[in-house]
Amino acid sequence: MEVKIMADIKDKIAKLLALAESPNEAEAKAALLKARELMAKNKLTPEECKEQKNQKLVKDFTDIQCTAMTNPWAASLSAVIADNYCCRAISRKRKGYKTATVGFIGLEDDFEICKKIFLYAYNCIVSTCKREIERNPWDDRGTYRKAVNAYGWGFCEGLRDAFEAQKEEHQEWGLVMVTPQAVVEEADGLGKPRAIGRNEVDMDTLGARQKGYRDGLKFDPNSRLEGRPERAQLASCR
């Protein structure tokens, strides 16, 4: 009898978590709150309750490459986004080469969303730098590159803080934003990812860094990406 009762509870929680996929934010939030209440009361985790689709684990790389000199922030950007979209960031570097290729590990649906958001954010950074950071022929060699990297690092920090603000505002979303154990185990099996470049503050490029931070806070892929509402929305910290 107790087994049947627990099965019914798990089924109810699974349905609530499915309802949390609703594009209606109020409906989704109410469902998540009720699901969290039932899970806490019965000491259950989301993975024990959610209806699992038969999704394969995807480990693949993007076309984005980075080096410690040119765009080291790209690796940090991939990690920030992956950590908040149920994936893990990875990189591939051939022996003897300075260039690393950015990639992700995740279940099919999560992987596609994570990859799209990363590419959109990366392109936003690159296009903003080309448009708004001037290349002065009289500057010392490397000054422009430092300004671009300062903007990129700032953007990553702003984006990270935006995610933290989102988590504080919508704590119930954490129930469906947990990285699946299979993804964690696969990523851990590859070892700890190597850092690419150093995130150093340069007073000469502080303005570019601060602008990057502000833009990272405001980054919002809603208008460009399709996916579940709670995965596409970022807190707007203006």
Keywords:
238 residues, mainly alpha, three-stranded antiparallel beta sheet, 54% helix, disordered C terminus, DUF7168
Description:
The protein has 238 residues and is mainly α. It has two domains: 2-49; 57-232, no CATH class. Helix content is 54%, strand content 10%. The chain is built from nine helices and three strands. A three-stranded antiparallel β-sheet has the order 1-3-2. A hairpin with a 6-residue loop joins strand 2 (88-93) and strand 3 (100-107). Helix 1 runs antiparallel to helix 2 (25-42), helix 4 (73-83) packs antiparallel against helix 5 and helix 6 (143-169) runs parallel beside helix 8. The protein is elongated, with a radius of gyration of 20 Å. 34% of the residues are buried.
Shape descriptor reads elongated
- What is the beta-strand fraction? 5-15%
Order of helices and strands: HHHEHEEHHHHH
> Which residues form runs of ≥5 with pLDDT under 50?
225-238
**How many domains make up the 3D coordinates?**
2
- Radius of gyration, in Å, reads 20 Å
Overall mean pLDDT: 79
Structural class: mainly alpha
Strand ordering within the main sheet: 1-3-2
CA-CA gap between termini: 53 Å
Domain DUF2786: 9-45
Domain DUF7168: 66-186
Pfam families: DUF2786, DUF7168
Biased composition (Basic and acidic residues): 212-231
